[in-house]
Design brief:
By secondary structure, the protein is α/β, with parallel strands linked by helices. The chain is built from eleven helices and eleven strands. 43% of the residues lie in helices and 20% in strands. Helix 2 crosses helix 3, helix 3 crosses helix 4 and helix 6 crosses helix 11.
Length: 328
């Protein structure tokens, strides 16, 4: 079958030659194009993007056509209900997100330099590694007080996503919770177990002898069901005869955990090192039960090939020193 002659201005659907680095470098793609593509990738609807960016719908359509012409590939298919990203579109949206994230980081570094700081470190910290990061910050500040540290805590999945996008320099977490290590380099620092905690005023906290059976029918605070930490705990708890409680609150918030344990007499599971710190501060009480060893190491994760600047490199050094002190 004879192919249709390509008209001037047609997008190249299979553009191995045009959808490449050389073409992109010559394409004059601008910052506003990246912002527009990210908005399209989130909304998948020209009308909603136009409203979000305060454009007319015709201007938004024209901008999308302009970007596709510059790139040399169709990024979105038009349908009666909205837009659907093509394979090239998915790649370009992720590229745009990463570039915008890196530019935001550049802005932070420039602002810090203007104020006389020596750099900024963006850290993702899983709750299970909560003790290591503050100790590392303390060591860092003793050596270089002008370094700004931004700490983002929470569940490991969004923390790793931010790491992949360049929004974080390093993530400190239980390494076995990083289920997809493609493109991620890891460095183990120390082993840690988990323990069961209660309110210092709980009747269980006052008992000298406890069995796992004594924890049945109690209210609990646990990580969200879809999290890796929860799946690992459920497996370990099942081996000692604990089952999913009927009275349950699921949260990744450390503050919510402490408050619910203290005010509602709930039980919760915590990293042993974090729990011992809370116990020493009279916030929580570690129950007299064997620690649950789930074969988990705490360590550092960063993007493969990442070359940290001086402030990040110094913070990584401080993380290693902090882990050494905790092991000692």
């Amino acid at each position: 079958m004879e192919s249709r002659p390509r008209k001037k201005g047609d997008l190249q659907e299979h553009s191995h030659s045009s959808f490449g680095l050389t073409h992109l470098l010559r394409s004059n793609v601008k910052l506003r194009h990246l912002q527009f593509v990210v908005a399209i990738g989130e909304q998948l609807h020209i009308g909603r993007v136009a409203e979000q960016l305060h454009l007319s719908q015709s201007s938004a359509s024209k901008t999308l056509a302009e970007i596709e012409s510059l790139v040399g590939a169709r990024l979105f298919e038009r349908t009666s209900t909205g837009l659907v990203p093509t394979v090239q579109g998915k790649v370009f949206v992720e590229f745009a997100r990463e570039m915008l994230s890196r530019m935001m980081r550049l802005g932070q570094e420039l602002a810090a330099a203007q104020l006389g700081f020596s750099g900024t470190v963006n850290v993702g910290a899983q709750i299970g590694a909560a003790m290591l990061v503050p100790l590392a910050v303390k060591i860092l500040k003793e050596e270089s007080p002008r370094v700004t540290v931004r700490i983002d805590d929470g569940l490991i999945e969004p923390l790793i996503e931010k790491l992949r996008l360049g929004a974080s320099d390093v993530v400190v977490s239980r390494l076995d919770s990083i289920w997809d290590t493609k493109g991620i380099a890891i460095e183990p620092l120390y082993d840690d177990a988990v323990v069961i905690v209660a309110s210092p005023n709980s009747r269980l906290a006052r008992r000298q002898k406890l069995t796992w059976h004594d924890l049945a029918d109690r209210p609990w605070v646990l990580p969200p069901q879809e999290s890796f930490a929860r799946r690992r705990f459920d497996h370990a708890a099942g081996e000692v005869g604990l089952h999913t409680p009927e009275d349950l609150v699921e949260t990744s918030s450390f503050l919510a955990l402490i408050t619910l344990v203290r005010e509602r007499d709930c039980l919760a599971v915590l990293s042993e090192r974090v729990a011992r710190f809370c116990e020493a501060s009279s916030l929580l009480k570690v129950l007299r039960l064997p620690a649950i060893h789930i074969g988990s190491q705490v360590g550092i994760a960063w993007r493969e090939g990442y070359r940290p600047g001086p402030s990040v490199a110094l913070f990584i050094k401080c993380l290693r020193e902090a882990a050494k002190r905790m092991r000692g």
